[in-house]
Design a protein that fits this description.
Length: about 350
Amino acid sequence: MSVSYRAVQWNPAKKAYDRRLAFVIAGYLAVFFIAAATAFETSPLILAMRACGTAAIALLIFILSIGPLARFSPRFSALLYNRRHLGVTMFLLAFAHAALATVWYHGFGVLEPLTSILTSILTSGSPFEGAAQIPFQPLGLAALVILFAMAATSHDFWLRNLSPRVWKLLHLGVYVAFALLVAHVAFGALQDAVWPGFAWMLAAATAWIVALHIAAGVKEWRADRVRRALAADGWVCVGEVERIVEETAEGRAKAVIIDDCRKVALYRENGAFSAISGVCAHQGGPLGEGKIIDGCVTCPWHGYQYIASKGQSPPPFFEKIPTYELRIEGRTLYVHPQAKPPGTPVPPCKIAGLEGASS
């Protein structure tokens, strides 16, 4: 790796999260397979295909619910912290569903699978003849392509090289993928469903996602008014909490500049942030490039140390630096530009759901 990038690291919190996720997915697939095999007489390949497909849809609905729910309660912040893992897992389930469907419906004929798929699409009836005549396979394929693009770029390498704006626009494609998958299921599996409850479940899930995002949007609009009031009072927006968490490992700093020239160092420790001057009291070293060692912010130049929440060196040393107040409003972190006198204690700003998560 170059000096700009490093291999992906799974900290203990992420490893534990992934183990729980793998256990839930495996449990769902097993329960679905056993229940469906008991209720219906069908091929194990079809059961596996449907198990992966329903798991992917359920996981996508869960993923789309995390963002809005986090705007209502910080308890969902830990899910936001691990959302990329959920997205990649969901793509793998969707890909497994597509692969099994290709094998089952197009893998045993005289035509090569891709040719068979294209032929089935081209020979489908007119959509005006009824919903059953609408080719649903292209809808699923289009959704899978979008999900693949998102899974393949779920890394900070792509975030930096595509630019946050382009990366965010690309990952907003998840809503297009969701709409395509709803149509894929509605015009495909539901046409042969023996129980109408499946259609009601899909409709309820779609209504849940739409209603949840509308409610979160209204809440965010109201929060915007509060943010404008904070800006009028001088508070400076540092950024979205989730993005700052992703950019700052536990015990590390994020350097920000306020008033166009003043350097402030944000330090993350025990799921909370503290803000101190970005300039060491010794010889002006960059505290925003340091890290926490033995519970103290350590200057990368000469090793001078400070307790982040107090802005002063541990006894018997006496160096002091200015501290800053932090505040979370909605999912945005703010810093007050008026520095506290050197050595003034300021309680850390806790990020709910991240306590004990170390990177």
